[in-house]
Write a structure and sequence with these properties.
The model has no long low-confidence stretch (mean pLDDT 90). The protein is an alpha/beta fold and 216 residues long. Helix 3 links the parallel strand 3 (53-56) and strand 4. Strands 2-1-3-4-5-6 form a six-stranded parallel sheet, sandwiched between helices. It has ten helices and six strands; from the N terminus they run E-H-E-H-E-H-E-H-E-H-E-H-H-H-H-H. It has helices at 16-26, 39-49, 65-74, 90-99, 111-122, 130-140, 156-166, 171-178, 182-196, 201-210; strands at 8-12, 31-36, 53-56, 81-85, 103-106, 127-128.
């Protein structure tokens, strides 16, 4: 009699040391089917590898983890996603849950907590680290205003443009990456400035860093 099939995990984290540590942590119970280092690669790998669950960082190059999840859900992919992040702000957890995440765990938590979150996700449940659960519950009550999170006022496309801009891409490079015109990329930029009350590229970049869309 063959052993039961182990759950297949896709890992997305641009910190290689973290990825290597997670491989060792997950190996006894799960099959690691792939490791990617940015959000766009995550979307593509999810489509081709069809994992049972995804463990992803929030802040990654090219496309952050939360917006990668938004793209997965838009494409009809219901794979459970557990976020493992350094961000201790409940705003990030709420943003992740709003996008359809199944779990939110902090990187400095006990390793067993991540395993518990993955198990819960595979059972169709939602797991939020106890360190943030109270704050997240309180924040979720503030709907529909999504108070305290200006990122929520931007569209998914605007967030994509903002992240690439903050990573140092020109309007032409952003346009090429997103398959839009340079003029459309500029339009999104100025729409964001108006929405957020900002006036320069530098202010937009500072906003992106402050709200975890990119790392320094």
């Amino acid at each position: 009699m063959s052993p039961p099939r182990r759950p297949r995990v896709l890992l997305a984290d641009d910190h290689r040391l973290v990825a290597e540590a997670l491989k060792s942590l997950l190996a006894p119970e799960f099959d690691l089917v792939g490791v990617v280092e940015d959000g766009r690669a995550l979307v593509e790998a999810a489509r081709t590898l069809r994992p049972d669950v995804i463990v992803a960082d929030v802040t990654m190059p090219h496309l952050n983890g939360i917006d990668a999840l938004v793209q997965l859900r838009k494409a009809g992919d219901r794979v459970p996603v557990v976020f493992l992040t350094m961000h201790r702000d409940a705003t990030f957890a709420r943003r992740a849950l709003d996008a359809g995440a199944s779990g939110f765990v902090l990187k400095h938590s006990a390793p067993a907590e991540l395993v518990s979150a993955i198990r819960a996700a595979l059972e169709g449940k939602t797991y939020v680290t106890p360190q943030l659960a109270g704050e997240v519950l309180e924040a979720m009550k503030q709907r529909p205003e999504k108070a305290g999170d200006p990122v929520a006022s931007l569209t998914p496309r605007q967030r994509e443009v903002l992240q690439l801009l903050a990573e140092g891409r020109s309007a032409k490079e952003i346009a090429s990456s997103l398959s839009i015109s340079a003029r459309t990329a500029e339009f999104h930029k100025y729409q964001m400035m108006e929405t957020l009350g900002l006036h320069t590229n530098a202010e937009l970049i500072h906003f992106a860093i402050k709200h975890g869309l990119v790392e320094l």
